[in-house]
Specification:
single chain; mainly beta; seven-stranded mixed β-sheet; six-stranded mixed β-sheet; 4 helices; 31 strands; binds copper (II) ion
Length: 561
């Protein structure tokens, strides 16, 4: 049997734009977005451009996925995209990201999602039918990212591989159970098997904001942090546009393939609008940032302003952490305090810089994100100091009951059968990760590729233990099989240095971790189930570069008794 080629070489492959011209996304002939004027329209905010979901009954929400059109920039025709309608008709949604559900830790919700989209994919969403369960049919499945829920409420393809078809309803129960679901910014987004990249790109993503008695969202609050109009969600997504206003998603230039390895835009959208501006008062703000890009790793700064990170995916930290810039891979979140008081009258630009090594990504540069116009007048002074402590958690799990070694492989890039995998196995091969209920496991992600992969676990949040450099080639030489290096082989003998501690902003619980090339990334989680849910329960873990997830960097896991 032929040994297939594993690559550690950076492989750029963006595919063909509509019309057949080679689509270099930063100067694409097919793409229309790069020329758009920046900072000409305001950032959508909750209540003004972002719909705050209205319940359909007590603790009940009923969403319909449907297609709507909005003008995402004054110089673009209206863009058709997909959205979650809470029953309001979405008159209050201004951009391509425009829905937020606000819930309370400790209060469960009954939620439904009814498929109101077309039977088959429109031309602007290029399906690769090698990867889908039912050809070109639009199959949907909503996943609550960060949810601690039963497997059949998780929205994952280990439970419902074919998803939900037109007219069908996915009914779920979101526990919002403490302490696994503390006050935090979660999001729900589509997770259709083989089409997550397209369904999320098409617009199926929304914020899910959990509150509690401390993090009330109001001002003042017991924590002493900004609230109300001074708490700003920032959902950052890069896109390309065709001249007719449709989103542009290129197809592969490899004959026989449609799927591309990563999607990168040449335009930045924040809260669903192209390069918006935000007017702020010269005082303290709370920014809640979500990287909602398909594949782009963001390295953000804000005109030299000091940033204090107070939380991440798994809720608030125990203490604030000063950060110079915020490096967020797809699906990672940062909860940030920033004081604009010394910038009164100034205009700041949030910029995106290439992240420093060992973070690695083939993304072309896209520097401008949004503009922040600091006014001269404060209407409500609010907090003026950074709190010295926070009512959150430092992740501190005990010695693990067992350790698993999980390889990340990229196979035959540039060829028609190019794909990625975990442990040398396809998604639909038998489950190999079966943690026991209540046990603590350490998972060691062994990156055999050239790039950073944001690894996301469903069900659990985890502690980042550290990252150890290792000799990738020697480990591969000793262990490579037909489809990369299989899982389960201890790489410790191939370490080339001591384990580096997690970054300061990785002190809390997380649900997505950057597994960098050349490193073993060690995480630790306790595999619990919500109250009343009995093992076995099936979930998935995967790379959150959604192109990778779709082909085929995702595996099931089962919590067993
Ligand atoms: Cu990946």
């Amino acid at each position: 049997m032929r040994r297939r080629r594993i690559t550690r070489r950076r492989f750029l492959q963006y595919g063909l734009a509509a019309g057949g011209a080679l689509a270099l996304p930063w100067s694409a002939q097919g793409a229309a977005g790069g020329k758009l004027a920046k900072y000409v329209q305001p950032l959508p905010l909750p209540g003004t451009g972002i719909v705050v979901a209205t319940p359909s009954g007590p603790n009940t929400y009923s969403f319909t996925q449907k297609e709507i059109r909005r003008q995402l920039h004054p110089d673009l025709p209206p863009t058709p995209f997909w959205a979650y309608d809470d029953g309001s008709g979405l008159a209050g949604q201004a951009g391509s990201f425009g829905m937020a559900l606000v819930a309370q830790t400790g209060t469960p919700l009954i939620v439904s999602f009814t498929h109101g989209l077309p039977q088959t994919y429109p031309n602007w969403l290029p399906v690769d039918t090698r990867l889908t369960p039912l050809g070109n049919e639009v199959r949907l499945m909503t996943h609550l990212h960060g949810g601690f829920v039963a497997a059949d409420s998780d929205g994952n393809p280990a439970v419902t591989p074919a998803g939900f078809g037109p007219g069908e309803t996915q009914a779920v129960f979101y526990t919002n159970q403490a302490p696994q679901m503390p006050a935090s910014l979660l999001w729900f987004h589509d997770h259709g098997l083989g089409t997550t990249r397209l369904n999320v790109f098409a617009g199926l993503a929304a914020a899910y904001i959990l509150r509690d008695a401390n993090d009330t969202g109001g001002e003042p609050n017991p924590i002493g942090i900004p609230g109300g109009a001074y708490e700003i969600p920032l959902v950052i997504q890069d896109r390309q546009f065709n001249a007719d206003g449709t989103f542009l998603y290129p197809v592969s230039d490899i004959p026989g393939a449609i799927w591309i390895g990563e999607y990168f835009g040449d335009v930045m959208l924040v809260n669903g609008k192209v390069w918006p501006f935000l007017e702020v008062e010269p005082r303290m703000y709370r920014l809640r940032i979500l990287n909602g890009c398909n594949a782009r790793i963001l390295g953000l700064d804000l005109g030299g302003a000091t940033l204090w990170q107070i939380g991440a995916e798994g809720g608030m930290f125990d203490v604030p952490v000063p950060v110079k810039n915020i490096v967020l891979a797809p699906a990672e979140r940062a909860d940030i305090l920033v004081d604009f008081s010394k910038f009164a009258g100034e205009t700041l630009v949030m910029k995106n810089h290439k992240p420093q090594k060992p973070v690695s990504s083939p993304a072309p540069q896209l520097e401008q994100v949004m503009q922040i116009r600091v006014g001269a007048t404060v209407t409500h002074p609010g907090p003026s100091t950074i709190p010295s402590s926070l009512p959150g958690r430092k992740a501190d799990l005990p010695t693990p009951d067992r350790t698993r070694y999980i390889t990340l492989n990229e196979i035959d890039p540039g060829e028609v059968e190019w794909y990625l995998n975990l442990n040398g196995a396809r998604f639909d091969e038998p489950t190999t990760e079966m943690p026991k209920l209540g046990s603590v496991e350490e998972w060691v992600y062994i990156n055999m590729t050239a790039d950073t992969h944001p690894m996301h676990t469903h069900l659990v949040t985890f502690q980042v233990i550290g990252r150890t450099p290792f000799d990738v080639e020697a480990y591969e030489e000793a262990n490579a099989g037909e489809n990369g290096v299989p899982g389960g082989i201890d790489p410790t003998p191939f370490a080339t240095g001591p384990m580096l501690p997690p970054a300061p902003e990785e002190r809390g619980f997380k649900d997505t971790v950057k597994a960098n090339p050349g490193y073993l990334t060690r995480i630790r989680a306790r595999f619990e189930l919500p109250t009343g849910v009995t093992a076995p329960q099936n979930y998935v873990y995967h790379c959150h570069i959604v192109e990778h997830e779709d082909n085929d960097m995702m595996r099931p896991f089962t919590v067993i008794t």
